[in-house]
Amino acid sequence: MGDIMYNSHTTTPSGTIEQNRATTQMPTDPAYDATIIGSGPNGLAAAITLARAGLSVLVVEAKETVGGGSRSAQLTLPGFTHDICSAIHPLGIGSPFFRNLPLHEHGLEWIEPPTPLAHPFDDGTAVVCERSITATATERNLGVDAHAYRRIMQPLVRDWPLVEDFFLGPLRIPQPFQPIALARFGIPALLPVRTLAQIAFKEERARALLAGMAAHSMLPLEKVATSAIALVLSILAHSVGWPMAKGGSQAIADAMASYLRSLGGEIITGMKVDTLDQLPRSRAVLFDVTPRQMVKIAGKRLPASYTRRLSRFRYGPGVFKLDYALDGPVPWRAEECSRAATVHVGGTLAEIALSERDQSHGRHSERPYVIVAQQSLFDSTRAPVGKHTLWAYCHVPNGSTFDMTERIEAQIERFAPGFRDLILARHTMSPADFQAYNPNYIGGDINGGAQDILQIYTRPLPQLVPYKTANPRLFICSASTPPGGGVHGMGGYFAARAALRELW
Fold it and tell me: pLDDT truncated to tens, each residue of the chain (504 aa)?
């Protein structure tokens, strides 16, 4: 590793790092086999994968707690626990990587609400996505589109175990048993969701349900392949549910950290890495950061030609988020909303499409599509007795400085009259606040980069192994690699596998 300069360090019992001397070449007796910068779910997944292979691993985290996008804190009032970024975890429980970890032995407990998702309308009703396709595809819920929904979703849910690894990782050659299932999914998935909704369904309820799912992509609904995220989230709702972690999303990261330590891995928190010279000696470094941060930290260890290519990496829209301490549960007019931990507040397909189109053109929607999570309805640890928390955000242009508080609250009040009267305290996070909290959230982009069809499999660069860099000892394992954003650990897992193939 002669092209990387590291410092020789020792780790003190208190967990701090002390610098001893500099060296211009990789020592033959590194202190660690691998160092991971960043302790988000992907960073911890990379560390766990390497530790399970018998390697010595160190994770270095700038914050005082591990977690990245999977953290919780008392943001409003004492006793109210809020999820800072991720809140509901269909990919957490549905991740092939997480399924192979004994995280329940390290304190992680999943809570599944009775209904994964509700989507209210102005007439006081709501369409719901239930755990079972049969319960979802009823005439009462989907009207004349019940049969069409069942016809679309049943084969996709049945095929999901055959194809999940293809979508939750880098682009690969399909296995012999996959082509038919991939085609069955891929043909509708490649369509703009607005097109698919209008072709597949006749009435507004089913169309709005699909639109709300697709808007998680943070893309205009007229974009190619926005149907893919809608179908995947619907499949997960029916196959594994949309659960939350008891006590807060921090519990996921804490369980991963506990498991890593049980494997002999080490974690240092409160250490911001500005340059590789700060790190202990190691054979490989994996970055749980976006390309922009990786270039800053790696410096001249990455060739200029490579960093120029990385500079073309595109970041996506930002988010504006509100956390509430409430004096009671949200008074939804549609009672179905009180059975779901997640509520899509946005109205019709046309309204959601306009909201997402606005942010993509640098505008702030008058009636934004808002993703709401009401964890305390199902997890009593989140708030004092009789009180509740609420988590809500909308999409805004990257780097926006506009205060969306009034517009978000107006949207919730629209479907839950009296909501404002319950507010005890609120906590606001603008795109700038998100980036200040976590430098990976460039301009408030919580997905680690735009996730459109041009960049989902080619993130951060179009290459056969996207986790490798131009330096054979440096790897990237963040949400800026396939399969993108979400608490699933798959980017970290595949990056660690790449490092194992290259170096061990």
Answer: 333 333 333 333 233 332 222 222 333 467 999 999 999 999 999 999 999 999 999 999 999 999 999 999 999 999 999 999 999 999 999 999 999 999 999 999 999 999 999 999 999 999 999 999 999 999 999 999 999 999 999 999 999 999 998 889 998 888 888 999 999 999 999 999 999 999 999 999 999 999 999 999 999 999 999 999 999 999 999 999 999 999 999 999 999 999 999 999 999 999 999 999 999 999 999 999 999 999 999 999 999 999 999 999 999 999 999 999 999 999 999 999 999 999 999 999 999 999 999 999 999 999 999 999 999 999 999 999 999 999 999 999 999 999 999 999 999 999 999 999 999 999 999 999 999 999 999 999 999 999 999 999 999 999 999 999 999 999 999 999 999 999 999 999 999 999 999 999
Read off φ and ψ for residue 384, nearest 5 degrees. -60, 160
Query: Measured between alpha carbons, how far is 80 from 169 in angstroms, rounded to an integer?
Result: 36
The count of other CB atoms within 10 Å of the CB of residue 294 is 24
Whole-number Å distance between alpha carbons of 64 and 60: 10
Answer left, alpha or beta for residue 171, where phi above 0 means left and psi between -120 and 50 means alpha.
Answer: beta
Coarse DSSP helix, strand, coil percentages of the chain, rounded to the nearest 5 percent: 40, 20, 45
First to last CA, the chain: 14
Q: What is the rounded CA–CA span in Å between residue 309 and residue 461?
A: 8
CB atoms within 10 A of CB 401: 11
User: Collapsing DSSP states into helix, strand and coil, what is residue 374?
Assistant: coil
